[in-house]
Design a protein that fits this description.
With about 300 residues, this protein is α/β, with parallel strands linked by helices. The protein has 9 helices and 9 strands. Strand 8 and strand 9 form a beta hairpin.
């Protein structure tokens, strides 16, 4: 995939070429006023090269972000989330595979102190923002996560469903200081364990949006909705990034290998391998603009929350 740092390299190379051209002009002229003007221009370009070099160094910097995992249970110890140290490591390893292209790595040592247990019924019952007790659940989770300053706190919760049984879903967001995850074994996608779930949810933590705006059931549903939206492909753009194509996610095609679909005569290329899509693929990645957004959010969190983004 394209290197998101390459434009900065190209900019530095162009600026240096301009400096060389000016230096040639400086050697060729004998006019003192022209010499002063050229030297001033060279100095200005030198300052710009230094500024862009700082940007390039930051772009090339590797981020190593520590994780603290918390296995939740109810106050009485019941309904403990089904998660083990080894399973946390598997999810983290997959996330590291996905974000390696952006030089972002999450640190979790299954033999270290980065795993704890907490009996808290309120947080353990948290499913998502549609919960009737969402505000109380969220605030309790925010408070606990704040106690692990410098780390990405990942809550593994039971999240009891209305009909009983644990949730299989996770969530996070740029306005939350934690990632909520289900138990490892209760997740599934296209008939197998959802190994990419943590990578997806930590993407939301890094302020990445879904590539899609609507999740539709069938091609027919998608064509109807597309028509109602004026057959404008931009209506299916979920994240506003130019290097992720508009994504008409259709459950009917989600588990296949289809890489494109035509709706009302308009061809869509499906971002099947993008981690922020819902399309099934074991080979997931992110785009340069997603990388830039994620890295910026991590820097913002380092400033506002004390998140460690060491190299």
């Amino acid at each position: 995939m394209p290197d998101e740092c390459q434009p900065l390299r190209d900019q530095i190379a162009q600026l240096r070429d301009e400096v060389q051209d000016l230096e040639a002009e400086l050697r060729a002229t004998t006019d003192l006023f022209e010499k002063r003007t050229i030297r001033a221009a060279i100095a200005m370009l030198g300052r710009e090269i230094s500024r862009v070099q700082i940007e390039l160094n930051e772009c090339l910097r590797s981020y190593a972000v520590p994780i603290h995992a918390i296995q939740l249970a109810n106050d009485d110890g019941g309904h403990a989330a089904d998660i083990t140290l080894e399973q946390v490591s598997q999810w983290v390893d997959k996330a590291n595979e996905v974000y390696s292209v952006g030089r972002i790595r999450f640190l979790f040592d299954p033999n270290g102190p980065e795993f704890s247990r907490l009996n808290n019924t309120l947080i353990n019952n948290m499913v998502d923002s549609r919960d009737p007790n969402w505000v109380e659940e969220r605030d309790a989770a925010l408070a606990v996560a704040a106690g692990y300053r410098g780390k990405v706190v990942v809550f593994f919760r039971y999240g009891e469903q209305p009909g009983g049984g644990p949730t299989s879903e996770g969530f996070s967001g740029g306005d939350l200081n934690f990632v909520a995850m289900p138990g490892f074994g209760v997740t599934s996608v296209c008939g197998q364990q959802n190994i990419g779930l943590f990578a997806h949810e930590v993407g939301h933590y890094m302020d990445l949006s879904h590539t899609f705006r609507y999740a539709m059931d069938t091609i027919n549903d998608a064509e109807i909705i597309f028509g109602l939206l004026g057959n404008d492909p931009a209506a299916f753009d979920g994240d506003g990034l130019s290097d992720t194509p508009p994504d008409p996610f259709i459950s009917q095609l989600g588990c296949g290998s289809t890489t494109s679909v035509t709706l009302n005569g308009v061809l869509f290329t499906l971002p099947r391998n993008n981690i922020m899509s819902y399309w099934f693929s074991l080979d997931k990645t992110v785009t340069p603009q997603q990388i830039a957004r994620a890295r910026q959010k991590l820097r913002d969190r380092a400033t506002s929350e004390g998140l460690i983004i060491g190299g």
